[in-house]
Design a protein that fits this description.
This protein is an all-alpha fold. The chain has helices at residues 2-71, 78-107, 111-130, 143-172, 177-231, 234-248. The chain is rod-shaped, with a radius of gyration of 57 Å. Residues 173-249 are annotated as: Disordered.
């Protein structure tokens, strides 16, 4: 009876230990769900902040590209452009005056007045007409230079973008790896407890085998004693003694 109670106490300890494990599993599950929800919320906040930074970065990149297009669009600096427009306007005004003077001479029907105006203003008009026009440089787009500048801006943008994304990944994922390590430690403890349970089960099986062997040995001894009892018969022994006495007489 004492052995049975000791066995029951061992089983009770195992039950209590397994109940503690189930309670811990439930608590770990609740903690994991809470940590997961907190992780998602924090990650969404970080993604929102990163999105605003990336939008600003993209806006700056596009603004730099627009400036590059203006600089290489073929118009040149603003001061030079205004000077060219001014000189072209002067040529146009001068030519309009020549045009008006020539039309006036052609409309004059008085021979005396015509000759007088022709000799006085005709030479001036011819001189103005012979003056060369201002010819600005060829207005063309420097596509090769623009491509080089835009590629350089793109490399700067990609470098900064990769840096921002790498920092975001590190902030969201790498900094939370410590919690996973703690979970790994808990899993190792659970594995150790499972191994202990398995070892206890093996010991119990070994104990059961030993008990069976003891029982089988006891059964064999009982069988041998029974067979010995069967072989020993006191009545037959008495009959044999009587027969020996008769034969001796």
């Amino acid at each position: 009876m004492r052995d049975l109670k000791e066995s029951l106490e061992v089983q009770l300890q195992k039950v209590n230990r397994k109940l503690s494990r189930t309670d811990r599993f439930l608590q770990q599950r609740a903690d994991a769900e809470r940590d997961s929800q907190r992780f998602v919320e924090e990650a969404e906040l970080q993604l929102g902040v990163a999105g605003q930074r990336l939008q600003g970065l993209l806006g700056g990149f596009l603004s730099a590209l627009r400036d590059s297009v203006r600089d290489h669009g073929g118009t040149g600096p603003e001061v030079e452009l205004q000077q060219n427009l001014s000189r072209i306007s002067e040529d146009r005004t001068r030519l309009q005056e020549v045009q008006s003077g020539l039309q006036t001479l052609l409309q004059d029907n008085d021979p005396f007045h015509f000759l007088q105006e022709y000799h006085s203003s005709g030479k001036k008009l011819r001189r103005e007409l012979k003056r060369p026009l201002f010819s600005p440089d060829c207005v063309c787009v420097d596509t090769e230079g623009l491509a080089e500048v835009m590629e350089a801006k793109l490399e700067e943008f990609q470098t900064e973008l990769r840096l921002q994304i790498t920092e975001l990944i590190h902030s969201v994922c790498v900094e939370n790896s410590g919690e996973e390590d703690e979970e790994g430690g808990a899993e190792e403890e659970e594995e150790e407890e499972e191994e202990e349970d398995l070892s206890d089960s093996d010991e119990e099986e070994d104990g059961d085998h030993e008990e069976e062997e003891v029982r089988s040995e006891e059964d064999e001894e009982d069988d041998r004693s029974e067979s010995a009892d069967d072989l020993y018969n006191p009545e037959e022994e008495e009959e044999e003694e009587e027969e020996e006495e008769v034969s001796s007489d």
